[in-house]
Design goal:
CATH class: Mainly Alpha
Largest sheet: 2 strands, antiparallel
Helix content: 55-70%
CATH architecture: Orthogonal Bundle
Number of domains: 1
Length: about 110
C-alpha cells in the first residue's frame, strides 16, 4: 500500500509541476521572476516544475496569484476520486497532454 501512495504522490507532483511550468511560460515569467513574486527560492520552483517536490497549499495559492490565474487552473488534470471503501485516490489525466514543450538548445 505504501508504494501505491508514493506513486500517486509522484504522479500528482509531476502533473502539478507540468501545469506550473506551462502557466509560467504562457505568462512569459522566468523562474527567477516567479520566485521574486512569491518569496520562494528559484531552486524550489525548479524542483516543483520537474515533479520532484510538491508545494504547500499556501505556496500553490501564491503561484496562482502571481501568474494571475486560479488555483483550479494549476490543478487541471488532477481530481480526487471518491473512495469505494475508506481510501480514495487522485486521478491524473493523460500525462502526455500535460507535457511542457522543452526548448531546443541547438543552434
Amino acid at each position: 500500500m505504501g508504494r501505491r501512495v508514493g506513486l500517486e504522490r509522484e504522479q500528482f507532483a509531476r502533473c502539478f509541476g507540468i501545469n506550473l511550468a506551462k502557466a509560467r511560460n504562457a505568462a512569459d515569467v522566468s523562474q527567477d521572476e516567479l520566485a521574486f513574486r512569491t518569496s520562494t527560492h528559484r531552486t524550489a520552483i525548479s524542483q516543483i516544475e520537474r515533479g520532484l517536490s510538491l508545494p504547500g497549499l499556501d505556496s500553490a495559492m501564491r503561484f496562482a496569484a502571481a501568474l494571475e490565474m486560479s488555483l483550479d487552473e494549476l490543478l487541471a488534470g488532477i481530481e480526487w476520486q471518491s473512495p469505494e471503501m475508506q481510501i480514495g485516490k487522485f486521478k491524473i489525466s493523460n500525462q502526455e497532454e500535460n507535457e511542457p514543450q522543452r526548448p531546443n538548445n541547438e543552434g
